[in-house]
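Mods, move this if it's the wrong board.
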Amino acid sequence: MAIKTILVSQPKPEGKKSPYFDLAEKYDLKIDFRSFIQVDGISSQEFRAQKVDLSDHTAVILTSKTAVDHYFRIAGEMRFEVPDSMKYFCISEAVAYYLQKYVTYRKRKIFFGKQTILDLVDVLKKHKKETFLLPCADRLRDRIPMTLEENNLKFTKAILYRTVAADLSDLEDVYYDMLVFYSPGGIESLLKNFPNFKQNDTVIAAFGPTTANAIVKNNLRLDLHAPQPNAPSMTGAIENYVKEELKAAK
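Not the wrong board. Structure tokens:
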């Protein structure tokens, strides 16, 4: 069956440029975007219960734009003025540039990796004397704290926000040829919103091993998995799949 409609369980990309838009145009696909999870910030009262003192930390490890937003939100609510000397270690360049929303970028000590915590390790190790704060969600991948512990870095985990299932009730009677997931939370949201979901011919695609495992654990069929050697990106993997389907249809 040729793929014609795709639902990506993420917000629509900002701006006019995205590999997804190129893919849609190239293969005449209808690609929609919808976040399957929503982020709720914890209250200052919940934060206080964690007994984390923001002023005890000389550096912050930021794993997402969401982490940036909630770090500065909670700092404001706790009346903590983030010092100019604070060092920021960002998971990617995009997250680093996002800091401009809150600080004067060129006047701050900002470091970034390529995309994962492993990319950041060498830089972090050069700053071992720092006391790091790790703002995160209630569900944090074990790899991040484990990597910090393995490298003997002094850090405090601070839960500043939680991920919950979004309301998808308006999609109940909408059918897509392919569903694309980027996190286990997306799978949980699908099944919470539609407990009687039957996959049938719907192609399910996953990015990353934890997302792929969540699909299999929930007795769904994993049809497409990225990254792969021949497709490091999700859009690349989808393109390969679509091309194979078109070939088979001939």
